[in-house]
Write a structure and sequence with these properties.
The chain is of the alpha/beta class. The protein has 15 helices and 19 strands. α1 packs across α4 (90-102) and α12 (399-407) packs parallel to α13. The protein is globular.
């Protein structure tokens, strides 16, 4: 029998969350490097390079890989012979570990969890509570798998109740393109099949805790139905040509994980949950001898990747810029932005919409006329930082506000990640504006381009407040130009066709 002390468990949770905030699993890093080496689309290769460079920088600087430091998911498997020395429940101990990790003074993590989800949606300010799944297993140890799941990838989760005779592969191939790029590919797909609806969802999430090992499976060969399905989906999803950040390319997924369970004879529940380019998870075991010891990887374990902007680059100062200036920008161009930009996300956009609807002036310091907005919720700064990691959030969530912001507010440019919906693209074209894409999963790298930062409005919204950033050579790409040409539509279409042509040529 093992006695697990309350403090050991809480410390282990807190240490694990700090650990995964800045260290990618090395199996994931190696898989990304392999994707980088074989990528043929320059735009996708550039995005992967930024992600790998950001990963190393985060490890070196001990700062978050991504500004979205996630909602905590924790699988706790408790041995039947374990005894607890604690006056708290497992949920309460996990939550205390979350609070300590996310408010750590040396590496504060962004608090993204809101309570009262159908009401006030008030931020808990410490990212608690976590989502905890508890199982009883044989033995006298406690096994913990813990992850921090970003909202952009979590929001792309899909669930379906198929008929027993329906084809899972067909559903996945039909569904993945509808997920867009908000889940920041290349990443992983976790798929749960069977059980009941909620069982399939838990299996899909837990499968994402596993190591990237698809190439070992390819070398070994599939032996079970699940392994055959993994290989088929890995091949066919990558043939879709979605590519890194949805720009088109050879690698959309680094691995496909599948868990199954017995189900009702008339049912086939299927849940698919993607993991993004900020995959963060770790596993540890407690045996009563003290807290978990997590050994940081060596910086030499990261591949040597250099990122250069190349020759096709446009340097722009956004201070005083006009629509005439941006009219010549073309989809696919790399742009280095300098000057002052404003930020704003969901909550800020909603307040702006309400104020404009009531005929009220916007707060002092908030003037969007001929300016750019960056969809971001940064991590708090520490030490000599101007701002913490500050990568882009999913732009489609702001689509419903786009016409208002371009028309009434006078905005001429937007910066975010992933694609825009058809109505937003049409509004961009109508107003002769532009949409620029920063790389999701490169938050620490992007933050280095921010030289000054201050909150100018809605401070009570925390990370959703409106900031003014002064940037220097902030790297972005033109995703939708003023004529409505859309990189996220053009890129995957071109690369899916190129992959088909290559397959045809190789089959001759």
């Amino acid at each position: 029998m093992s006695i697990i002390k309350k403090q050991d468990f809480i410390d282990s949770i807190a240490d694990a969350l700090q650990y995964i905030s800045c260290y990618h699993p090395l199996d994931f890093v190696n898989a990304m490097k392999e994707a980088y080496d074989k990528e043929a689309n320059p735009a996708a290769k550039d995005a992967i390079a930024q992600i790998l460079l950001n990963s190393r920088m985060a490890a070196e600087g001990h700062r978050p890989i991504c500004q979205d430091t996630g909602i905590v998911t924790c699988f706790v498997k408790i041995g039947m012979q374990v005894q607890w020395d604690s006056d708290l429940t497992v949920q309460e101990m996990v939550d205390e570990g979350v609070r300590r990790a996310y408010t750590h003074p040396d590496n504060p993590l962004r608090a993204s969890v809101v309570a009262d989800p159908v009401g006030t949606r008030k931020n808990t300010r410490n990212n608690a509570p976590g989502v905890v799944h508890i199982d009883m297993i044989p033995g006298d140890k406690v096994e913990v798998s813990i992850a921090a799941k970003g909202g952009g990838s979590e929001n792309k989760s899909k669930m379906v109740m198929l008929n027993p005779s329906d084809d899972v592969v067909e559903w996945v191939l039909k569904t993945v393109p509808t997920m867009g790029a908000g889940w920041c590919p290349p990443g992983m797909l976790g798929i749960g099949i069977g059980g009941t609806a909620e069982k399939a969802a838990v299996m899909a999430k837990e499968s994402l805790m596993e190591h990237v090992d698809i190439h070992e499976l390819i070398a070994k060969g599939a032996e079970t139905a699940e392994e055959k399905l993994r290989l088929e989906l890995f091949d066919k999803v990558n043939r879709l040509g979605i590519g890194a950040q949805g720009l088109g390319g050879l690698t959309t997924v680094l691995d496909v994980k599948i868990k199954t369970a017995p189900t009702h004879a008339v049912s086939k529940p299927v849940v698919m949950i993607p993991n993004c380019a900020a995959t963060r998870h770790v596993h540890f075991t407690l045996d009563g001898s003290g807290p978990a010891e997590l050994t940081p990887p060596k910086l030499s374990d990261w591949p040597e990747i250099t990122w250069e902007v190349g020759q096709n680059v446009r340097r722009v100062n956004v201070d005083g810029i006009t629509k005439a200036d941006i009219a010549s920008w073309k989809t696919g161009e790399t742009v280095l932005l300098s000057g002052k930009i404003l930020t704003g996300r969901d909550a800020a956009h909603k307040r702006i919409a309400d104020m404009l609807a009531r005929g009220e002036p916007l707060p002092d310091g908030v003037d969007f006329k001929n300016r750019f907005i960056y969809y971001v919720g940064p991590v708090d700064a520490v030490r000599d930082e101007v701002v913490g990691p500050a990568g882009p959030t999913t732009s489609t969530r702001m689509d419903k506000f786009t016409d208002m912001m371009l028309g009434q507010a006078g905005l001429i440019g937007m910066i975010g990640k992933s694609e825009r919906g058809p109505k937003a693209v049409e509004s961009i074209k109508e107003h002769k504006a532009v949409y620029l894409m920063a790389v999701g999963g490169a938050a620490y790298l992007v933050s280095k381009a921010i030289k000054k930062a201050r909150v100018v409005a809605f401070a009570d919204l925390g990370m959703e407040a409106i900031y003014e950033f002064e940037v220097e050579d902030m790297p972005v790409a033109v995703a939708v130009d003023s004529e409505g040409n859309n990189a996220h539509a053009i890129g995957p279409a071109i690369w899916s066709a190129k992959i088909a042509e290559l397959d045809k040529a190789l089959s001759k």
